[in-house]
Amino acid sequence: MTSKDEKKSAPELNSKQKKFLKGLGHSLNPVVAVGKEGLGEKLIRATALELSRHELIKVKVGKSSPVARQETAEVLSTGTGSSLVQIIGKTILLYKKNPELDKEKQIRLPKK
Fold first, then answer.
1. Cα(35)–Cα(13) distance, rounded to whole angstroms?
2. Largest CB tally within 10 Å, which of 7, 46, 66, 77?
3. pLDDT for 102-111, tens place per residue?
4. Are β-strands 91-95 and 30-34 bridged in parallel, bridged antiparallel, or unpaired?
5. Calpha distance 63→47 (Å, rounded)
Protein backbone atom coordinates (compact mmCIF):
# COMPACT_ATOMS: atom_id res chain seq x y z
CA MET A 1 0.00 0.00 0.00
CA THR A 2 1.42 3.39 -0.97
CA SER A 3 1.06 6.67 0.86
CA LYS A 4 0.21 10.00 -0.72
CA ASP A 5 3.88 11.05 -0.56
CA GLU A 6 4.94 8.09 -2.72
CA LYS A 7 2.91 9.06 -5.79
CA LYS A 8 4.97 9.46 -8.92
CA SER A 9 5.91 12.99 -9.86
CA ALA A 10 5.44 14.44 -13.30
CA PRO A 11 8.38 15.34 -15.53
CA GLU A 12 9.65 18.88 -15.18
CA LEU A 13 8.56 21.36 -17.82
CA ASN A 14 11.06 23.80 -19.26
CA SER A 15 10.28 27.52 -19.63
CA LYS A 16 9.35 27.19 -23.31
CA GLN A 17 6.83 24.43 -22.53
CA LYS A 18 5.37 26.38 -19.59
CA LYS A 19 4.95 29.47 -21.75
CA PHE A 20 3.16 27.38 -24.40
CA LEU A 21 0.81 25.84 -21.79
CA LYS A 22 0.09 29.23 -20.20
CA GLY A 23 -1.05 30.46 -23.61
CA LEU A 24 -3.37 27.46 -24.02
CA GLY A 25 -4.67 27.81 -20.47
CA HIS A 26 -5.53 31.49 -20.78
CA SER A 27 -8.96 30.86 -22.28
CA LEU A 28 -9.86 27.87 -20.07
CA ASN A 29 -12.47 28.01 -17.33
CA PRO A 30 -11.78 26.33 -13.96
CA VAL A 31 -13.11 22.75 -13.86
CA VAL A 32 -12.20 22.01 -10.22
CA ALA A 33 -12.95 24.24 -7.22
CA VAL A 34 -11.39 24.02 -3.76
CA GLY A 35 -13.88 25.11 -1.13
CA LYS A 36 -14.28 25.07 2.63
CA GLU A 37 -13.76 21.28 2.75
CA GLY A 38 -10.15 21.82 1.67
CA LEU A 39 -8.02 19.09 0.10
CA GLY A 40 -9.56 15.68 0.55
CA GLU A 41 -9.04 12.44 -1.34
CA LYS A 42 -12.28 13.16 -3.23
CA LEU A 43 -10.93 16.45 -4.58
CA ILE A 44 -7.64 14.82 -5.63
CA ARG A 45 -9.56 12.06 -7.48
CA ALA A 46 -11.77 14.67 -9.19
CA THR A 47 -8.69 16.61 -10.26
CA ALA A 48 -7.05 13.43 -11.62
CA LEU A 49 -10.23 12.60 -13.56
CA GLU A 50 -10.37 16.06 -15.16
CA LEU A 51 -6.66 15.87 -16.04
CA SER A 52 -7.25 12.54 -17.77
CA ARG A 53 -10.05 14.12 -19.79
CA HIS A 54 -8.37 17.41 -20.71
CA GLU A 55 -4.60 17.20 -19.95
CA LEU A 56 -4.56 20.93 -19.06
CA ILE A 57 -6.94 22.27 -16.40
CA LYS A 58 -7.54 25.25 -14.17
CA VAL A 59 -8.29 24.82 -10.47
CA LYS A 60 -9.95 27.66 -8.56
CA VAL A 61 -9.12 28.08 -4.86
CA GLY A 62 -12.17 29.61 -3.18
CA LYS A 63 -12.13 32.33 -0.51
CA SER A 64 -13.40 29.85 2.07
CA SER A 65 -10.61 27.32 1.45
CA PRO A 66 -8.63 26.61 4.63
CA VAL A 67 -5.53 25.70 2.59
CA ALA A 68 -3.15 28.26 1.05
CA ARG A 69 -2.96 28.33 -2.74
CA GLN A 70 0.72 27.31 -2.86
CA GLU A 71 0.07 24.29 -0.63
CA THR A 72 -3.04 23.43 -2.66
CA ALA A 73 -0.99 23.50 -5.88
CA GLU A 74 1.72 21.26 -4.39
CA VAL A 75 -0.74 18.71 -2.96
CA LEU A 76 -2.80 18.51 -6.16
CA SER A 77 0.21 18.24 -8.49
CA THR A 78 1.86 15.59 -6.30
CA GLY A 79 -1.38 13.69 -5.66
CA THR A 80 -2.28 13.54 -9.35
CA GLY A 81 1.23 13.16 -10.78
CA SER A 82 0.77 16.35 -12.80
CA SER A 83 3.02 19.32 -13.50
CA LEU A 84 2.33 22.70 -11.94
CA VAL A 85 2.39 25.21 -14.79
CA GLN A 86 1.51 28.38 -12.90
CA ILE A 87 -0.37 30.02 -10.06
CA ILE A 88 -2.09 33.33 -10.72
CA GLY A 89 -4.10 34.76 -7.86
CA LYS A 90 -6.42 31.99 -6.70
CA THR A 91 -6.15 30.02 -9.95
CA ILE A 92 -3.82 27.06 -10.49
CA LEU A 93 -2.92 25.65 -13.91
CA LEU A 94 -2.01 21.93 -14.02
CA TYR A 95 -0.84 19.71 -16.89
CA LYS A 96 -0.61 15.94 -17.21
CA LYS A 97 -0.02 14.10 -20.48
CA ASN A 98 -2.58 11.39 -21.29
CA PRO A 99 -1.41 9.07 -24.09
CA GLU A 100 -4.83 7.38 -24.15
CA LEU A 101 -6.57 10.48 -25.53
CA ASP A 102 -7.26 10.74 -29.26
CA LYS A 103 -4.22 12.10 -31.11
CA GLU A 104 -6.21 15.19 -32.15
CA LYS A 105 -7.06 16.02 -28.53
CA GLN A 106 -3.55 15.55 -27.13
CA ILE A 107 -1.47 18.61 -26.37
CA ARG A 108 1.85 18.59 -28.23
CA LEU A 109 4.50 20.34 -26.19
CA PRO A 110 7.38 22.17 -27.87
CA LYS A 111 10.66 20.24 -27.84
CA LYS A 112 13.12 20.90 -25.06
1. 28
2. 77
3. 888 899 998 8
4. unpaired
5. 19
